[in-house]
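REQUEST FORM: STRUCTURE PREDICTION
Request ID: SP-0412
Submitted by: Lab K.M.
Chain count: 1
Length (residues): 124
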Amino acid sequence: QVQLVESGGGLVQAGGSLRLSCAASGRTFSSYAMGWFRQAPGKEREFVACISWSGGSTYYADSVKGRFTISRDNAKNTVYLQMNSLKPEDTAVYYCAADRRGAAIRLASEYDYWGQGTQVTVSS
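STATUS: Completed
RESULT:
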C-alpha cells in the first residue's frame, strides 16, 4: 500500500509559479511511475504530466508543455510538479498518482494509488 500526500497548492496571480510536491510512503516508491492529474469544477479529471520510475521518461499534456516540469527524488520518496507561467485555466485540484507498473502513462485508469489533492487557484 502506498499513501500519497500532496502539498504546495495555493493562490497565485497569472504568470506566477508554484511547485507542488507529492510525498509517498512505502519502500517501493522508486519502482513506481508517478503522474499528476487535475480536475477543475464541472470538468473531468485530466492528465497533466507523468514520469517513469527512473525519471528517464516524462510526458506532458499539450496544455502545459513548456510551462510545467515533473521531476522526482527517489531518495526522498517525492515527486514534484514545477508550474511556471500559470494561467487562470490552470485552476483546479491537482492530484498525484502512483502506478506499480513503472512506465510513464497518461491514462488515469492505470494508476493504483491517489492522493487527496491540493487546490491551485490562478487569478487573472
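NOTES: The radius of gyration is 13 Å.
Reviewed by: T.R.
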